[in-house]
Amino acid sequence: MMDSSGPWFDMYLTARDSIVLNFNPFMAFNPDPKSEYNDQLTRATNMTVSAIRFLRTLRAGLLEPEVFHLNPAKSDTDTFKKLIRFVPSSLSWYGAYLVNAYPLDMSQYFRLFNSTRLPRPGRDELFTDDKARHLLVLRKGHFYVFDVLDEDGNIVNASEIQAHLKYILSDNSPAPEFPLAYLGSENRDVWAELRQKLVSDGNEENLRKVDSAVFCLCLDDFPIKDLVHLSHNMLHGDGTNRWFDKSFNLIIAKDGTAAVHFEHAWGDGVAVLRFFNEVFKDSTQAPAVTPQSQPVRADSSVAVQKLSFKLNDALKAGISAAKEKFDATTKTLTIDLIRFQRGGKEFLKKQKLSPDSVAQLAFQMAFLRQYGQTVATYESCSTAAFKHGRTETIRPASIFTKRCSEAFVREPSKHSAKELQQMMAECSKYHGQLTKEAAMGQGFDRHLFALRYLAAAKGIVLPELYLDPAYGQINHNILSTSTLNSPAVNIGGFAPVVPDGFGIGLFTLSYTGQPLSTLNISDGPHFAFILNGILQTPHVDILYEVKVVPF
């Protein structure tokens, strides 16, 4: 019997488009609450150590299971956690089920570390080497590796890691004329061919070190100016200082602004967000070094290896072509800001409205106002309640949102406030139903996707349904949306999935620092990108407003 997630892996791995903008998203960390810990070297050391602590906890089987609590007052308590430890593993699931707690699938987690997507003709390959002990560091387009685990699997002393990172930060070498990292942004078949040339030219050992590294740490040589700059930098950067194929890149700017940029084929936001939250919590609450810590005297010139790649004329030409494509594509992404300080999730909950449903309704209204129509809309929903579960689609655009949007946008004076409120309540109720159905595997998108996959695999003529223009239209998702909730997230996002579309990230944030401006990301001839979120502080809820700009 086929692994249920196999076709989904195939969908990602057989896609030949560049993974930059088309697939890879980012999530940016909040600053460390202790401002002096946002020094680049200090934060890079602490986050690296915290990431390795997570790795060791995961591999030791000690990571607390990911659980969805329907009744957290009963199940998300220390008492329940202590009691469930004494229940045999074969029965513990039933014990959790009795208190409405559902353990989630964590099979993706092992690919967080030592993993890379390798370009191959026709279908890429996910590569993992959990025996490797070294970290990959990128700075100014140069590649460095050094061990962060010793031969016994213990974390190398934090002050040694700090010393090695300080050594890398002090390297005054100019940026390479032909930055290798551009190749990872190419069409996958083009990149596969160029990679084979790299291997044939004597770079196989160095590529193996890149591919097998625990993860990729990217040290940028400039501070972040604002959230617009942050989003561009963490989503794509200038193409020289990321290894886009790595399971994730931990990016730390000159001012300590940090983010995770991740490749999407191996896993989804659930696994990355858990890692993200744990790293933020550990690095801020139990930092390995302080701003006053002095790195030990380590022979970094021996411990740190700078990788040198041999590039023939064909490879240099390939890098130049990749750079041209990268620059042309990323220039089409325009970002703008708007702050809207009215309402918020707590207010909506008091009105018995789902904050997510209201945000989705706002997207529908904005699009209707701007373009005069309702379009195919995608909202991702985790199906981690199932073994090897990935995602299902929630379809937020419905007859309810259409009716409500038209009432607000086209004829608000024809309806009383009570009638408008009733329409919003209907939208919220129906959206809640769609969300539950999707989470429980009762959506239609993955079902139809699987049937189409099986028809192709068995050589069956494609059923007429898949050739119907309506099927093509509903899968041309002009509004692609995703939501997450975390106190560690500053902001995050992803690009659109179609040339005339929008990528909308909804972030429910708990943040006690300065209020953040919202991102309203707009038009390019090919790409548009909007970030939207709800920011909750102790005193005020800020609902980010989406202003849709023509594209």
Written overview of the protein:
The chain is an alpha/beta fold and 551 residues long. The chain is built from 17 helices and 20 strands. Strand 8, helix 8 and strand 9 (248-252) form a beta-alpha-beta unit. The radius of gyration is 24 Å and the shape is globular. Mean pLDDT is 87; it is low at 509-551.
What are the defining features of this structure?
alpha/beta, Monooxygenase, Chloramphenicol Acetyltransferase, eight-stranded mixed β-sheet, six-stranded mixed β-sheet, 17 helices, 20 strands, about 20% strand, acyltransferase, Carnitine O-palmitoyltransferase 2, mitochondrial
Distance between the termini: 46 Å
CATH level 4 superfamily of the largest domain: Choline/Carnitine o-acyltransferase, domain 2
Oligomer: single chain
State mean pLDDT (0 to 100 scale): 87
Sheet-strand content, in percent, reads 15-25%
The count of strands amounts to 20
Instruction: Give a quick account of the main beta sheet: strands, pairing sense, barrel closure.
Output: 8 strands, mixed
Structural class of the secondary elements? alpha/beta
- The CATH topology name of the largest domain reads Chloramphenicol Acetyltransferase
Poorly predicted runs are: 509-551
**At the first level of CATH, what is the class of the largest domain?**
Alpha Beta
CATH architecture label name of the largest domain? 2-Layer Sandwich
User: Helix count, per DSSP?
Assistant: 17
> How many domains comprise the coordinates?
3
Fraction of helical residues: 25-40%
Overall shape: it is globular
Radius of gyration: 24 Å
Q: Could you give the order of strands across the largest sheet? A: 11-7-6-8-9-10-1-16
Enzyme class: transferase
Domain Choline/carnitine acyltransferase: 6-505
Membrane topology: Peripheral membrane protein
EC number: 2.3.1.21
